[in-house]
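Ex. 9. Protein: FAD-dependent oxidoreductase.
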Amino acid sequence: MTKKKIVVLGAGYAGLRTVKGLQKKGLDAEITLINKNSYHYEATQLHEVAAGTEPAKKISFEIKDVIDESKVNFIQDEVTTINHEAQEVSLKEGEKVSYDYLVVALGFESESFGIPGVDEFGWPLVDIKTAEAAKAQLDKNLQNYKVSKDPKDLSIVVCGAGFTSIEYLGEISNRLPKLADKFDFPMDKVKVTCIEAMPKLLPMFSEKLASYGIDVLEKRGVEFIVGTPIKEIKESSVVYEQDGELKEIEASTIIWTTGVRGSSVVGASGFEERRGRVMVEPDLTVKGQPNVFMIGDVSAVMDEASGRPYPTTAQIALVQADYVVEAMANKFSGTEPNLFEFKSAGTVASLGNNDGIGHTMNKDFKGYIASVMKKGIVDKSLLQTGTPSVLLKKGRFDFYH
Ligand code: NAD
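Predicted structure tokens for FAD-dependent oxidoreductase:
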């Protein structure tokens, strides 16, 4: 009898963790992993690459270093569509891969919300390529100031004040004095502005913790403009609305971190979705397709307590992956899986290398201890998606300052 085919799409936190679990489980199945790059990257650390505090290789590792190729067939290619009727995945290079069971873990993309100019002039932080491009753009502008003497070249606007923005601001505000030495520009002429649509900053944290975080960043020179939705991005300026009036701020570097959406492959494949996310069943499968799991940033899992889907995070993606491995084993043994359950272990945001804010075990943490916690989380996820050797090479062990 031919073996059943399990195909996993995407080697981010959700996909790679699933494949690691499946290869260990020893199911009588042919396992295929499809990913557009040869490497996995720690998406939670992209702000470090964009700010230039870490090179891309520090936050990424080769997929072949962690999968067992005697058990998993790895195809490096881009998924274009999923055909549910034919149970087949189409790839950019023309190959078609059929499946009996599918795990869709295609991750996230930048979201422009239809705001004009975002795709042309905003620099998103969604993968290694975009993070490196944002760094190159910033370096070029800062370096150019010496010749241009144009204030825009020393002006950075960070759009939105979500986690990615706050962590990027923490990183870049720490690094700017070093860049001023390197590129010889006056620090007192640097302008870093964060523009946020909502009236309140860091609403996911307590008032005390949020004001600590804002204070740290303001002391490093970041200016927050809040309650001001961005309306347009131009080549060297950002237009936002304040009290019903349109205002404009000039900047050569415009970082677009106002939120993300799930992979557009999901919509292109006809799944019922909103912003690239599919509301999944309690066992993480797609309604009417019990052999198709959706996990990570392409899935929306209802949090019954809040009545809203859980936010997409690396944490939930990893928990979903472990669940899918067990649920898949259930499918092979013909037993009923338990339903997916998730309890957040908390949240931590870094503010540069040795500061941060976090909430876990019903307690708030700030400063150095929060930054140590964040490094611990990164190290743990490297073990969950990688191997002990990956952890040793890429882990964060600079706890002491
Ligand atoms: P986000 O959705 O968390 O934040 C985006 C911010 O941009 C929001 O505050 C939103 O109000 C603002 N915004 C949206 N449109 C705007 C506009 N037109 N003008 C001005 N502001 C606007 O997005 P993110 O930071 O990219 O994070 C994506 C997901 O990844 C989230 O679920 C987040 O929790 C998670 N994440 C977690 C961590 C962590 O735990 N340390 C780090 C990074 C990302």
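Check your answer against this statement. The mean pLDDT is 96.
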